[in-house]
Amino acid sequence: MSVSSLAAASGEREAPFYRSVGNECGLFEQAFRQRLPLLLKGPTGCGKTRFVHHMAARLGKPLYTVACHDDLTAADLTGRYLLQGGETRWVDGPLTRAVREGGICYLDEVVEARKDVSVVLHPLTDDRRLLPLERTGELLEAPDDFMLVVSYNPGYQHILKSLKPSTRQRFVAMAFDFPPPGVERDIIARESGLAAERCAALVNLAASLRAMKGQDLEEGVSTRLLVYCATLIQGGMPILEAARATLVEPLSDDVDVQDGLLEAIRATFG
Amino acid sequence: MSVSSLAAASGEREAPFYRSVGNECGLFEQAFRQRLPLLLKGPTGCGKTRFVHHMAARLGKPLYTVACHDDLTAADLTGRYLLQGGETRWVDGPLTRAVREGGICYLDEVVEARKDVSVVLHPLTDDRRLLPLERTGELLEAPDDFMLVVSYNPGYQHILKSLKPSTRQRFVAMAFDFPPPGVERDIIARESGLAAERCAALVNLAASLRAMKGQDLEEGVSTRLLVYCATLIQGGMPILEAARATLVEPLSDDVDVQDGLLEAIRATFG
Amino acid sequence: MSVSSLAAASGEREAPFYRSVGNECGLFEQAFRQRLPLLLKGPTGCGKTRFVHHMAARLGKPLYTVACHDDLTAADLTGRYLLQGGETRWVDGPLTRAVREGGICYLDEVVEARKDVSVVLHPLTDDRRLLPLERTGELLEAPDDFMLVVSYNPGYQHILKSLKPSTRQRFVAMAFDFPPPGVERDIIARESGLAAERCAALVNLAASLRAMKGQDLEEGVSTRLLVYCATLIQGGMPILEAARATLVEPLSDDVDVQDGLLEAIRATFG
Amino acid sequence: MSVSSLAAASGEREAPFYRSVGNECGLFEQAFRQRLPLLLKGPTGCGKTRFVHHMAARLGKPLYTVACHDDLTAADLTGRYLLQGGETRWVDGPLTRAVREGGICYLDEVVEARKDVSVVLHPLTDDRRLLPLERTGELLEAPDDFMLVVSYNPGYQHILKSLKPSTRQRFVAMAFDFPPPGVERDIIARESGLAAERCAALVNLAASLRAMKGQDLEEGVSTRLLVYCATLIQGGMPILEAARATLVEPLSDDVDVQDGLLEAIRATFG
Amino acid sequence: MSVSSLAAASGEREAPFYRSVGNECGLFEQAFRQRLPLLLKGPTGCGKTRFVHHMAARLGKPLYTVACHDDLTAADLTGRYLLQGGETRWVDGPLTRAVREGGICYLDEVVEARKDVSVVLHPLTDDRRLLPLERTGELLEAPDDFMLVVSYNPGYQHILKSLKPSTRQRFVAMAFDFPPPGVERDIIARESGLAAERCAALVNLAASLRAMKGQDLEEGVSTRLLVYCATLIQGGMPILEAARATLVEPLSDDVDVQDGLLEAIRATFG
Amino acid sequence: MSVSSLAAASGEREAPFYRSVGNECGLFEQAFRQRLPLLLKGPTGCGKTRFVHHMAARLGKPLYTVACHDDLTAADLTGRYLLQGGETRWVDGPLTRAVREGGICYLDEVVEARKDVSVVLHPLTDDRRLLPLERTGELLEAPDDFMLVVSYNPGYQHILKSLKPSTRQRFVAMAFDFPPPGVERDIIARESGLAAERCAALVNLAASLRAMKGQDLEEGVSTRLLVYCATLIQGGMPILEAARATLVEPLSDDVDVQDGLLEAIRATFG
């Protein structure tokens, strides 16, 4: 399977279900058409990644997703010379691939990456839309259907890990949050197969659990965990047991915090 | 012996003895069937690793165990190009192996690993269940019988070493603790060959020693050390001598703490 | 596409629009003719990069731009031996290219680079104008039409990242700031296609937003973001929505700061 | 001389003299027979290394000793691919050698090693006794006559360098201290050739010097240094001169501490 | 162009203009003849580098200049094996070159270099004057016409970056400062072509600006910047504009400090 | 010139002049004969290195000197595989050379080296006197005429750079200081050719300058600098000028400290 088939496989997959909340799809499309880079901000598990998958499928463009991390360097994005059969061969990274052939490159949690990624993001995010590959001597001009999307979670930025203003100010930006109750209920029901009214109860519960964020919890419960919970219930597990495994243990190791979460759960389902 | 035989050898080994305490086997099986990743939390030596071995044997799946550490990188999990005979050859890592052929991949003490492991964990732990191998250009889709299990010990997390919420919230989670007295007695007796009533005395002793945790001891005495102690006693060593070598010296270097432990031991056996 | 075509492509591009504010073009030309290196200081997105592009086109010289970052080393600028076909081949970096063939080398945000870049900057910025390439054994003398330009943003220097006096004092320097209102209005209108009077309102707004810098904002809103905003409005997006996506979300994650920004926006357009 | 001859040479050397103090030989033998890993704790130069050499010779097993240090990694213990004649060849490390062929592997001052050694210690120290070699794809099962012994000095542990409870609790442990006076006298006499009654005086002196530990000295004087002192005296050097060179200068650079030591020496020999 | 031609080219260049201030030339010559290493201390841009160039030309010796930096290692000075055509070939570094063929090796800002340079400096700076090349197995004895010169700026030493006494005390040392007014005037006039009396005014200005050092400025204005200023004035630029670009902006980003500098400039030229 | 000729060249050089102060030669010879490792402690430039050179020549043994530094690793001492002509070839380091062929290995400022040198020092400094070469699979036994000598300067140890007690206690140790006046005078006269009575005045001066150590100076003036001073005077330089270049500038950059030094110099010679 070649590198190009990697993106294709990704592009060919059926557009994942996504329930729009505001005008996020419109802003994404405008940014795509105006060739502006996009920054998504929002908490863990609120649907940013799925939104990008949805939009890529809707626009019919291949999607290259990169989960950024502490050791991700510019070369991981642009490509490298690999030694094969005694000969060095250049292998495009996901960003180069997207620039060369068109498509959306999505850098998830971009603040985690090493600082040298700015060397490739800056010329791609000004009016030149260029990707210089020093190693191969190429200067790629991004086609009209190339789009750069990055995301990060403002909830746990710290001093050493934040986007420099000189980078931030190159993006159109959009804030995400958990979907409103009705939408979240439908998402859970669709993903887990659990009846909508039982999902609605989980969404109510999520509201109380999310209210504990900040004081006791680093992050509120994500839509993903609600889907997990509904899946286990639908699979036949008792509600309290499923809730403990998906809405309590993954959120905290602190016994007092867990007791608070369990109390809220029992108040809803007990 | 090839890489594939490594997992096979592991898979073929007889299912290790495991005494269930609650519904942990049921939750593991549900997670396996629903294709949800699982997080095990609990203290040192309480049986997490053995539980995973037991479940892998019970489900008839090969098991790939990785003891994570400070320098473990994503490439240690996914694979590397090795130079052999002037030709580079790709060698799958244990995670890739498990995704390619099905099976359970168990990352023990996952918080110890380098941050770039998130790059492989995230796409494997959302609904796509994908493992992108940038180096080979492959995008592997996990088969239904692939399962990812990770563990960590909440007892000694510190700031620099904790699971990010964006990672934690991708797992169904389960807390482990030392087994209840009757179960622990049976485990010790079975492993050491020592008579059950003498093992019961060791379990009683463990309760007093574990009560010292937090104030004086970083960790309570593990079931493993109780098995060691019973083994030495069964081998003919005087009880106090065996207890010093297995329940005192391995737990602390502090003379006062050691005196406290010895006092508890003498109170039980003296 | 070879390395030389990289610069050429850059040099052949039509001179980008640039509205002069003071005598910056005159000073640049004098420095070029007197063979003096130039340092540009100024905030994010005020037009430093575009100014250099403009001057390179005006002087008809190829331009080599390097976005500096934490891991950029002297070798990234001068070149490297690459292994190809079992033979090592020297490949010039962008600085060497500019010295060898003439042209302007622009190091954007030079303080971000590793300290060893001083090894190449120092002999190039005294009267010798030499570039020693230890690896190839060459000692290149810069031709008359070589010019070194570096930039940085005095707004977010910290102790570990500042230009040593022994480096700074080798440059003729020039401070940049956002363009005066009339000029900025014209720039926005030209780039976005939005009517000049609507752009004037955006420039007025920018003044109030920039006044918040320091107390609440790390950086004032850039001309680039104003162009983004005008582009989205011109594309049909409601003004408040466009302003939120370009003048609020990219500037801050703090709800209070965002409220302050939104208030100023509504006071102008509401 | 091949790698295998390295251990052999070590195994064939005559059993070094060792005077047992308590039941340390019995505990070592039990641990060896029960296939339990062993942890030795004790101050510098009290005889831990010699004890392990003695036991290896007594049990007739080859011994692989590794002095651990800050940069020792798992690969230093397990082995590496080396490039030879254009072909990579796997070379076993000392731990792999001991597992493959049987024998005792002794990791001296194990807390100094890099954290990734836990990846090889953990599966070797639970009931599976396995050594996975990811690089070669092998999963070695330790034979009955393999034993792992590690040591460390509790006297100078600090926060960054301590054994994690999850590692410590995998070992049977034993504390070492300087030998009792009669034994130490015999050791010194045997090693240096000095008459026993003169050695007895040195042992008396050691008691006073060791009493200064903690307040003035980081470590008490070791048996090794007493042997050095006796050796120089036996070689004809005046007592005070020999004592200064072996019992004062090696222990401290502080003039006041040295004066204290010299006073104690003169009180004994003056 | 080969490595040897690098030094030659440097040696053949015409002796740069240098106006002696005290007996610095005599001390340099004595040190050269007595085969003693020399340490030059002084502020940025006061002429240390030019002095060394001047003396090298005067003594008719090739000069090897190395601008030291944070990542400069001993191997950068001594040489390396490079892989070429499948064969490793040793390539002398600049220090080895100077020792092998005679000449002056000048390490500019030596305190910036990595600590392992001491391994080559120490044996070269005691009476043996040896350069051991461990990698090639050579032990080079420096010829009579080899001289080592190092420099640093005492003005911005900090704790982590200072010369160890064991290194400092191996050098004859000399302090440099800006030249006295008449000399500096002549230097500026000669370099810029500006009339001497106009240069004298610049030197007077420099005195007031240098008086601000310490309180407001990290470094006083260098002779180099005065030459830049005179060059721009000579090229037709208005005095105040030239002074801002060369004597204000390169020295400080602080508005208050800049105002102070401008006031002094206007007081002289306004 | 091969590696072996490196040591030979060193061994063949005529024994350098050394004036014994106490019984240091006797202690060195005893340690050599008893096969005990030796630790030399003392300030910069007091003659430790020359003493070792002298003793090596006197004993007729080759000497391998290594100036230790922050990046010196065990492999720098033991050796490495180098790639040559497509084949890896083992090249002995200086320590291995000394062990293999007999001779003295001198590690100057050993505390500067990386921590992994302990892996080679420990087995060489206990009664086994072994050097294990893991990479070649050799276990070298040191011959009777091998001796390990290390040195360090207790004057500037800090917490991160000190010898662990487990390493220190493996050495016979000796403290060095500047030679007594008569001896130092003779050394200076012999090295510089200056008349003895003029050297005596320099030694007197050194006493006053050394008295300033601690309060104002990090290190007292070394014998080496006194030799430099006498050399310049003998070469015809005025005393005050020579003293400034050798006894003032190399010792301090602080103007007040320099004034204090100059005052002492003028009081002696003025």
TrEMBL record, chains A, B, C, D, E, F:
It comes from the Bacteria. SUPFAM superfamilies: P-loop containing nucleoside triphosphate hydrolases. The keyword Zinc-finger does not apply. Residues 37-171 form the ATPase dynein-related AAA domain. Residues 184-267 form the CbbQ/NirQ/NorQ C-terminal domain. It holds the Pfam family CbbQ_C. GO terms for molecular function: ATP binding; ATP hydrolysis activity. Keywords: ATP-binding, Nucleotide-binding. InterPro entries: ATPase_dyneun-rel_AAA, CbbQ/NirQ/NorQ/GpvN, CbbQ_C, P-loop_NTPase. Belongs to the CbbQ/NirQ/NorQ/GpvN family. This is Nitric oxide reductase activation protein NorQ. It comes from Halomonas beimenensis.
